[in-house]
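User: Can you write out an input/output pair for a complex, sequences first and structure second?

Assistant: Here is one pair. Inputs:
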Amino acid sequence: MKKTILIVDDEEDIRETVKTIMEKEGYRVLVAVNGDDCLKQLKTEKPDLILMDIMMPGTPVREVVKKIKGVKIAYLSVVRTSEAEKEELLGQKNVVDFIQKPFDVKDLAKRVKKLVGS
Amino acid sequence: MGKVKKNRTLLIIPTTCRPAEYPVEIVRKIGKSNKIVYITLSKSYEFLSVLFKKNNLPLENISFIDCVSSFIKQPKKTARVEFVEAPYDLDAICESLKKTISKDCIVIFDSLSVLMNYGLEVPVGAGVLNNFAKCFSMVLKEKGGKIVFVLEKSDEKNDLIKESKKLFEDKIML
């Protein structure tokens, strides 16, 4: 059975790009346009990994993440943070990776594979 | 940096350095001894502090308006830092800026390119940038301050820039 990835990003270009990459890698892909949409989808879906933009309009991601139970989350971040802040973010429950944008396509695929398998 | 001295509102376009490096270059060019207000829309205050320290830029001359940290964590009250809830909240940025502008300071707005990512909150055609500039222009003028807006070269032809063209008195390619 295919593993499922939920992509959460307010930028359509990024959503589509990551969706294409993930589908090419053989994953089933779901998309959400912001944190609230993500929470709504989690009522009926249980993805293996959420790839979530860290800065989106609407409910701040730090609040959204608190409400997510039992699903791995990897941040996609255009935001530049200090190493200490990065450690702090990775210390949040369920958060397993911090991927800096712009990302390398091969690196993204490799990191996702490492987190959920193929 | 003569153009900064001559003009109140400028565009600065980094062409030779990466986004994580240009803050250092801009602060260096503006002059380490000038008072600077750094408005950051995509780099946390902590990231910039570490970066500036590493490059021997004196932090005591720099105040920050950090529009990032509140999104990712509960920021702690910090001297010389105003935290704004979201990078697209130009009203809140303006209010923080009015409180922070000091005599002869130079404000760095980093960046218009990041602001453009929030198209729904910062729509083209509504004069958003002009209204933002109007909001603090009196205070900036009274204090003899200047503002430089950072823009990535690839965004020069963006409609938000086109509609605000008159706002910028000159531009600097860095």
